[in-house]
Design a protein that fits this description.
The protein has a two-stranded antiparallel ribbon. A two-stranded antiparallel sheet has the order 2-3. The chain has a single domain (24-297), classed as ABC transporter involved in vitamin B12 uptake, BtuC, CATH 1.10.3470. By secondary structure, it is mostly helical. It is built from eleven helices and four strands, in the order H-H-H-H-H-E-E-E-H-H-H-H-E-H-H. A hairpin with a 2-residue loop joins strand 2 (144-145) and strand 3.
Length: 303
């Protein structure tokens, strides 16, 4: 089976997934969240798995995309579709400024640097009055095609997954290009790469910007999916989770981003229900033992 045929079959499966009779809406929401996480993880596959640059701050670039469209569509009345290129531009522009400083670092200083500006940007989002501080921005208009609004989770599902497939195909083509080969060379050592004519500084900055733009696209979709944004989903903890998604799915494989997102997101929601129930049972058992022990030791009224 050729790779193109596998992609086509997977696309058909995902296209009919929301149409399955009796499918709980909860699973469609999970699929939406998997798609959003996969977009960010694809950028990390290129940045970390292929280029060898570790970043814990990709969630901040999601925040740039989300807050850009939220602000422009609510305060200035721009169409969400018009805010898309602006969201990507802001995310990419922020990556240029941060990348010029960050990608020059090497060793453990690079991930520490991404943690530092990831924390800083989280507090920036929560302190700016124009962005609603900790409350964020609400009443974000939904995506619409003509008069057809993508309000339902089953409708915006297709917008999210079309973006995932387009991003995956672009990333695969990029890896097969001359620029992609230059990015692959970064992992094998800068000296060897430069010996073959690769500008390592330019390749690092390019892959850093590309990963940020994919994260900005995810943030743009997230804003119109949730129709509200606040700083919480764009902190360092979310950045660590995105990196974990890329590693779980296979940091060197583009479609591994989708697999990793599915595994992590589904396990996250399952464990959120299973772990409290498990510990509640244990706590109840311990309480029963304590009560019985106290009843044995407690002297009766006649004693």
């Amino acid at each position: 089976m050729t790779p193109a045929l596998r992609i086509l079959i997977f696309a058909l499966v995902m296209a009919v997934f929301p149409l399955v009779p009796g499918l709980p809406r909860f699973w469609i929401v999970l699929a939406d969240n998997v798609g959003l996480a996969a977009l960010v993880a694809m950028g990390l596959v290129l940045l970390t798995g292929v280029g060898g640059l570790t970043s814990f701050g990709q969630a901040a670039f999601c925040g740039f995309g989300a807050y850009t469209t939220a602000l422009l569509s609510t305060s200035y009345g721009l169409s969400p579709w018009l805010t898309l290129p602006l969201s990507l531009l802001v995310s990419g522009g922020a990556a240029v400024l941060l990348g010029l400083i960050t990608v020059r670092l090497s060793g453990h200083y690079l991930p520490l640097g991404t943690i530092a500006w990831g924390l800083s940007l989280y507090y920036v989002f929560s302190k700016i009055a124009l962005l609603g501080r900790n409350d964020g921005i609400s009443s974000i208009p939904p995506l619409a095609i003509g008069g057809f609004q993508l309000l339902d989770i089953g409708r915006i599902y297709y917008a999210i997954w079309i973006a995932v497939f387009v991003a995956a195909i672009l990333t695969l083509n990029l890896l097969d290009s001359r620029t992609g080969r230059a990015i692959r060379a970064l992992r094998r050592g800068h000296v060897a790469a430069e010996a073959f004519g690769v500008s390592t500084a330019r390749a690092k900055l390019f892959v850093f910007i590309y990963a940020a733009v994919l994260a900005g696209l995810s943030g743009w979709l997230y804003a119109h999916f949730q129709r509200a944004v606040n700083p919480t989903p764009f902190g360092v903890d979310a950045g660590i989770e995105y990196l974990f998604v890329a590693v779980v799915g296979g940091a060197g494989y583009v479609w591994g981003a989708v697999l990793g997102a599915a595994i992590v997101i589904i396990l996250k929601y399952v464990l959120q229900d299973a772990v409290p129930a498990l510990f509640q049972t244990h706590m109840q058992l311990e309480t029963d033992v304590i009560d019985r022990d106290q009843a044995v030791r407690r002297p009766g009224r006649g004693q």
